[in-house]
Specification:
With 201 residues, this protein is an alpha/beta fold. The protein has five helices and ten strands; from the N terminus they run βαββαββββββααβα. The strands form two sheets. The protein has a five-stranded mixed β-sheet. It has a five-stranded antiparallel β-sheet with strand order 7-6-5-9-8, with no helix packed on it. A hairpin with a 4-residue loop joins β5 and β6. The radius of gyration is 16 Å and the shape is globular. The mean pLDDT is 94.
């Protein structure tokens, strides 16, 4: 059980869904333990394991801090949004000596689990891929919450950089990078984009 003093058991209208990735040790436990050991009530409603399992920390009608931007309406953005964390190492570096891809902790990520961005994305050329199971779980959650909260699923082309639309609270699905230049979650993996574009169908 996620402690009730680590999120806000308050109900606000839900207008946005924000996608994050954990950039931490494999599994939801690391984030769970990190969050319960702080007092800022930083948390997301769901963490999606690599096998697609959904770990729910609290009901989607409640809220926690997850955006952390300097915009004047940061608190309201958090209150009016639902957040998903995808379990992933995020940005990787390439060890040219050993010819392996590594996370910031030094953990080696197999090449078949790596996506490369030719022009780099938010300072990284390589990222750990989100798994097909994770993408499918995110898809189902987006459809479910769209139905429950009437959040539109139209694909936002401007979601991959800081967006005035996201910051102004425009209804829809966004990424953490839509609000902050210092974040790299989520990255624009082609399979994620295909899934998001296909939601309206």
């Amino acid at each position: 059980d996620f402690p009730e003093n680590q999120y806000y058991k308050e109900i606000f209208e839900k207008k946005q869904i924000v996608l994050h990735h954990t950039a931490s040790w494999r599994g939801s436990d690391g984030d769970f333990l990190n969050w319960i050991n702080n007092t800022e009530r930083i948390a997301t409603c769901q963490i999606i394991e690599t096998n697609g399992d959904c770990v729910q920390l609290f009901n989607s009608k409640y809220w926690g801090h997850h955006i952390g931007c300097t915009h004047a309406n940061n608190k309201k953005l958090n209150q009016n949004s639902i957040a998903i964390e995808i379990d992933s190492w995020g940005g990787l570096t390439y060890d040219t000596t050993n010819k392996v891809y590594k996370s910031y902790t030094g953990t080696v990520v197999p090449e078949e689990n790596v996506v490369e961005y030719e022009k780099s994305f938010r300072g990284f050329r390589f990222f750990e891929k989100y798994t097909p199971e994770q993408i499918e779980s995110v898809r189902k959650l987006l459809l479910f919450w769209s139905s429950n909260y009437k959040i539109p699923l139209t694909y936002n082309e401007d979601m991959w950089d800081v967006s005035n639309n996201a910051l102004s609270g425009k209804d829809g699905v966004w990424a953490h990078v839509s609000y902050r230049k210092d974040k790299s979650d989520i990255h624009p993996q082609p399979e994620i984009i295909d899934m998001l574009k296909g939601l309206k169908k």
